[in-house]
Amino acid sequence: MAQLRRDYQCFAGRNTEIIVLGPEGADSFRKYWKKEGFPFIGLPDPEHSVLKLYGQEVKLLKLGRMPAQMLIDKEGSLRYVHYGNTMADIPSNDDILKLIQNP
Hints:
Oligomer: single chain
Number of helices: 5
CATH class: Alpha Beta
Order of helices and strands: HHEHEHEEEEH
Shape: globular
Mean pLDDT: 85
CATH topology: Glutaredoxin
CATH architecture: 3-Layer(aba) Sandwich
Helix content: 25-40%
Structural class: alpha+beta
Number of strands: 6
Radius of gyration: 14 Å
Number of domains: 1
């Protein structure tokens, strides 16, 4: 999430909202979010309901949820998805920003 924080203004400048879902319960998630001061939206998903909708994997031997990045347009259509195979398998912000049209 540090890379998303670093380039948050680039995303915002392209009329793109970042929403991060976490596996923690609401109280733990709220405390973490407040402590880190992320500028984007964070939502707890302890029941994995959103995870299940979008097919994000949980691999217990690899520390839980695998990373997943998705671009969903204003109409709710999924335009891009990347499911990570490891915790470090995350596309660069530059790669994601190239997929978003400039305003």
